[in-house]
Specification:
Radius of gyration: 27 Å
Oligomer: single chain
Number of domains: 2
Domain RCK C-terminal: 201-290, 291-375
Largest sheet: 5 strands, antiparallel
Main location: membrane
GO molecular function, one term: monoatomic cation transmembrane transporter activity
Structural class: alpha+beta
Protein name: Putative transporter
Family: Belongs to the AAE transporter (TC 2.A.81) family.
Strand content: 5-15%
Length: 563
């Protein structure tokens, strides 16, 4: 019996001190939480959030970690989490503010603004300590880095290690944050009178501000005398739009089809295969002729299409034009898939390690292109560790750089949440431009992110477990839950109405934006199960980086002003 007590509650002489006992408890919390994360009720799961609740239970029964080790693991887990997110979203962070992404991210700014107004209204009306409300707000939007930012800001402001009420408020509001967004989506469906079939059809066509971040492939028959006999390069210059003509079929040339180059002449009656954004499809067809249904598979014996993975570091940051595939190999790059988003293969587009490019050409030409690009998963299986530790090092430096904001008495610091996150975004975006390979496989990056997130959640649960039950049973705990409900529901409902009636966003895209704004993967899964399109996922990934950035910075500034 004594051994069991030491096993769960620790003893200074047991297993060489408190470290081994702490790791034992941490691993047990993670195992229980991850096992419960597989449980679904009506297709909805709280996912790894169960780790938080497992930690709360263990903490309630006084199964604690060594205090110093607990604080280190919490901060280290959070740094790993935010840095891996920043590194993943960095390459597309600034691109998300162009085209349709500008509108979607503008809606995110509105929703976050409504959330700030709601939070401040609760603060001024009720007089609840702002540190507590900061924790409730971070839980209500299921944003773990925002919790870390609030804790860091409070520590810098009052020169204390931590304020337990911040983490307790987060723990109380977190379940409401997960389920509240899903409930708001169901309400919006009926309030907005959504025709799900019509919305699904619109999503397939790429409407609803996804036009700039999705690609369509279609065939066009040339029947415009104005471009008869004109080279492709001249047509590109005239249209001033990003599109790619990958193949051309000439019926008078013995049913022959060929690759397209800049000097390829377009003749009346030719059929071309075009890759372009959905909103560019109509003007392209209007200029060139008419859209037709054409079976390109009948020519599979002469030209093939293959997706090739870029795994050679020397190609990192090179543009498609620099590769000179058309002139040297007789092959075309028709599209580039980066982090799940398809990009038009324009000559100036810079390639990155990990990009998946679609190459069209003869069997021999495509094979040569494959050798140039690498296409070796083995090369990518070796992780690039230098950017990870270099970025964390620079992030920690940036985290402690003070800067002054008028009206705030204390200097503001980004902390261990904002510093690594911003550095990771910058390295992910600028790394390829300066030949710094920042790519890691999706599985490796996901492993780093999930390990950090899980450790952080477990530590938060263990740290607040002692007071959690008493808080829930008290009047103040129930009030905190109500505050979390308001902070979750009001911005999502108003944001959904604004997005639909003011910006006319496709419903599935809108739901993805709302899930991304609250950094809520369970809500995204809920929408994804109700649509065969990926418009919700694209909306989510488009706004997620900016939403994360806004949540971290705004809550940190608010803590400095009002706490």
């Amino acid at each position: 019996m004594e051994v069991i007590n030491k096993l769960f509650w620790g003893f200074p002489e047991f297993w060489g001190g408190g470290v081994a006992h702490s790791l034992f408890i941490l691993s047990l919390v993670l195992t229980i939480g991850l096992a419960l994360s597989k449980v679904k009720v009506h297709g909805i799961s709280l996912g790894v959030s169960w780790i938080l609740f497992a930690g709360l239970v263990m903490g309630h029964f006084n199964m604690m970690l060594d205090e110093h080790l607990l604080h280190f693991l919490m901060e280290f887990g959070l740094v790993l989490f935010v840095y891996s997110i920043g590194l993943e979203v960095g390459p597309g962070f600034f691109a998300s503010f162009r085209g349709g992404g500008r509108v979607l991210n503008g809606l995110v700014a509105i929703i976050v603004g409504i959330g700030v107004v709601t939070l401040l209204a609760i603060y001024f009306i009720t007089g609840t300590p702002f540190a507590t409300l900061a924790g409730v707000a971070s839980g209500a939007v299921t944003n773990t880095p925002a919790l870390g930012a609030a804790q860091q800001a409070f520590s810098d402001l009052h020169h204390v290690v931590d304020n337990p009420s911040i983490a307790t408020g987060y723990s109380v509001a977190y379940p409401i944050g997960v389920l509240g967004v899903i409930a708001a989506m169901v309400i919006l469906r009926y309030v907005l009178r959504i025709d799900m079939k019509a919305e699904e059809e619109d999503a397939r066509r790429g409407t609803g501000y996804l036009e700039k971040i999705t690609l369509n492939t279609f065939s066009v028959k040339i029947n415009n005398k104005m471009i008869d006999g004109k080279p492709v390069r001249e047509v590109h210059h005239f249209l001033k739009r990003d599109f790619m003509i990958s193949r051309i079929y000439r019926p008078e040339d013995n049913n022959h089809h060929e690759l397209v180059k800049g000097d390829t002449i377009l003749n009346d009656g030719d059929v071309i295969l075009v890759v372009a954004h959905p909103q560019d499809e109509e003007p392209i067809c209007a200029l060139m002729g008419e859209k037709v249904a054409f079976d390109w598979k009948q020519f599979s014996d002469s030209l093939i299409s293959r997706r090739i993975l870029i795994t050679k570091s020397e190609l990192n940051g090179k543009s498609i034009a620099q590769l000179q595939f058309r002139s040297s190999l007789g092959a075309n790059i028709t599209r580039v898939n980066r982090s799940g988003v398809d990009l038009v293969a324009t000559p100036h587009l810079k390639l990155q390690m990990g990009d998946r490019v679609t190459v069209v050409g003869s069997e021999l030409a495509v094979s040569h292109a494959e050798k140039v690009m690498g296409n070796s998963l083995k090369r990518l299986n070796a992780p690039n560790l230098i950017p990870i530790f270099l970025g964390i090092f620079l992030g920690c430096l940036l985290a402690n750089v003070p800067f002054f904001i008028p009206g705030i008495s204390e200097n503001l610091r980004l902390g261990l949440t904002g510093g690594p996150f911003i550095i990771a975004i910058l390295m992910g975006y600028f790394g390829p431009k300066y030949n710094l390979v920042t790519y890691n496989t999706i599985s490796a990056n996901l492993m780093l992110r999930e390990v950090g997130f899980c450790i952080f959640l477990a530590c938060v649960g263990l740290a607040t477990g002692r007071t959690f039950v008493a808080t829930i049973e008290s009047y103040s705990g129930l009030i905190w839950i109500f505050y979390g409900f308001l902070i979750t529901m009001i911005p999502v409902l108003l944001g959904g109405i604004i997005g639909r009636y003011c910006f006319h966003i496709n419903f599935f895209t809108l739901m993805g934006v709302l899930a991304g704004c609250n950094t809520n993967p369970p809500a995204l899964s809920f929408v994804g199960e109700r649509s065969d399109t990926d418009s919700a996922a694209v909306g989510y990934s488009t706004v997620y980086p900016f939403a994360m950035f806004l949540r971290i910075i705004t809550l940190q500034i608010l803590v400095f002003i009002f706490a």
